[in-house]
Amino acid sequence: MQDSVWQAVLGEIELSVSRANFATWFMNTRLLRYKDDVLVIGVPNVFIKQQLEKKYNPLILELLEKNGVKPKQVEYKIHSSITMPKKSDEQTETLLESPNRNDSKQRPSSSLTHTYRQGLNDKYTFDNFVVGSGNELAYAACQAIAQHPGQKYNPLFVYGGVGIGKTHLIQAVGNAILAKNPNAHIVYVSTEQFVQEFLDAIRYKKNTDFAGYYRGADVLIVDDMQFIAGKEKTQEEFFHTFNALHQANKQIIISSDKPPREIPTLEERLRSRFAWGMSIDMQNPDFETRCAIIQTKAHIHAIELPQDVVEYLANLVQTNIRELEGVLNQLLAFCEMRNLEPDLNIAKSLIGASKSRPKHLSAKQIIEKTAKHFHVPLEDILGPKRDKDIVVPRQVAMYMLRNELHLSFPKIARELGRKDHTTAIHSVEKIQKESTFDPDIKLAITEIKERLYA
Ligand code: ADP
Ligand code: MG
C-alpha cells in the first residue's frame, strides 16, 4: 500500500474531525508498513498513540476500507523520525513498554518533555504555499516576520475561515526561521493543546514547568485562538506568557477563525494586547488560486493533471482548501491503486456524485445555523425585535435562504415570521452587496455554509 492511500484517509479524517483535533492527533502520522494484513501507522508520541487506539481506531478502519484497504489489524507505533528527537523518543518508548514501572500517575501527556520545535510540521513551507489574492497580505507579513522575527508586526494575528491556509502559513514562518537558525526556540501549539497542558500542569502539580517552557520561546505560534473562549484561567496564563515574550521582543503569532473582537468572552486585556500588532484577514481563494493550489499539490505527487480536471475540482470546492485537497487526494489515490491516468470522467464519477449539493437542507436548519453563528436566540430572529444585532442575523438568514434554497421572497418572509415580502427583497439585496466589501459579513456567510455542508 502506498502512503498516498494514507494521505487520502487523512484527507477524509480532516473533514470529519475538528481542525484542532486533526492538528493534534493526525497531522504528524504516516504509513510505516502494510504487511501480512497488519497496517502500521507511525505516530510522534505515546499520547497520540493512545488517543488513536482508544478513540479513533474505528474511524480509521472505516476510512481505510472506504479507500480499498482492509487490514486485520492496525497498529500505532511511535516513530522516531516523525518530530521528536531520538532521545526523548526512546524515553517514551520505554515508558510505553513498562507503563507501571515506577509511577503509573506519570502521565504520558507530559509532552512537556518538549523540545523547542515539536509541533512544527516540515511539510508546511513558504515554497509550497500558493500566493493569491485572498492570502497575499498574510503571506507578506509572515515573510517579513521570518526575516526579522520580533521586530515588525508583533503580535501578528491572522484570521479567516476553515481550511484557508492559516496553519500552513504560520507553520511556514516557524520552519523558515528554523532553517536559518536551527537553535531558535520555536514553539507551535494549538490552543486546545495549550489549554490541556495548562490544566494538566495545575491538576498534576508536576514540575513540568509549563510556564517556563512557553516563556522560553523565541517565537510562539498559537493556532486556533478561538478555543480560548470562556477559559478564564488559561487566558490569564496566556496573558502573562504574552507579556513576558513581548517585553523581550520575542515574536508572537496567533491564528483564529475570527477577529479578536468576535471571540466571545475574550478578556479585554488580551484583546487589547492583540491590537498592538497587526491583524490580517485571510480571504477565500479565487478560482485561479484554487487551480494553482491543485496543480502544486498534484506536482508533489509527481502527477500532471489535465487542465479540465483541475478546473472541475476548483469549481467543485470553492472555499475550503483542505476540502479541495481532500477531493484531490481521493482522486489521486483511486487512480494510483488502479493504475489509471486521472481524467475528467473519473473525477466526475468519483467525486461529483458524493459532492453534488445541496444535501437535504431545510429552511429551519439554515435559520438555526445562522442564529447560532451570531449567538442570538432563534426566537429573537423569528420575533419582532428590531435591534441591530438581531436585524443583521435575520437579514443574513434571508440571504442564505435565497442563495442556498432559492426560495421565493414571500416564502422567505414567511419562514422568518415577516408579513411583508419587500423586507425580504431589501434584506437579500443588502447582504448581497455587503458581502462584497464587508469582511464580517463575508466571513459569516462562509462559516454558516461550512456548518451547513460539513
Ligand atoms: P486552516 O488552518 O486555515 O484551517 P490549513 O492551513 O490547515 O487551514 O490549510 C488546509 C490545507 O490546505 C493544508 O493542507 C494546506 O497545506 C493547504 N493550503 C491552504 N492554503 C494553501 C495555499 N495557499 N497553498 C498551498 N496549500 C494551501
Ligand atoms: Mg488550522
Descriptors for this entry?
454 residues, Rossmann fold, Helicase, Ruva Protein, domain 3, 4 domains, 5-stranded parallel β-sheet, 3-stranded mixed β-sheet, 20 helices, 10% strand, globular, binds adenosine-5'-diphosphate, binds magnesium ion
Between the first and last Cα atoms, what is the distance in angstroms? 29 Å
Bound molecules: adenosine-5'-diphosphate, magnesium ion
CATH homologous superfamily placement of the largest domain = P-loop containing nucleotide triphosphate hydrolases
Rg, nearest Å:
23 Å
Strand fraction equals 5-15%
Q: Which stretches of 5+ consecutive residues score pLDDT under 50?
A: 84-111
Shape from CA axes? globular
Helix fraction by DSSP (H/I, runs of at least 4): 55-70%
CATH domain class of the largest domain:
Alpha Beta
Strand order of the largest sheet: 5-6-7-4-8
Number of strands: 8
CATH topology of the largest domain: Rossmann fold
Q: How many helices in DSSP terms?
A: 20
Succession of helices and strands? HHEEHEHHEHEHHEHEHEHHHHHHHHHH
* Tally of individual domains: 4
The CATH architecture of the largest domain is 3-Layer(aba) Sandwich
Structural class: alpha/beta
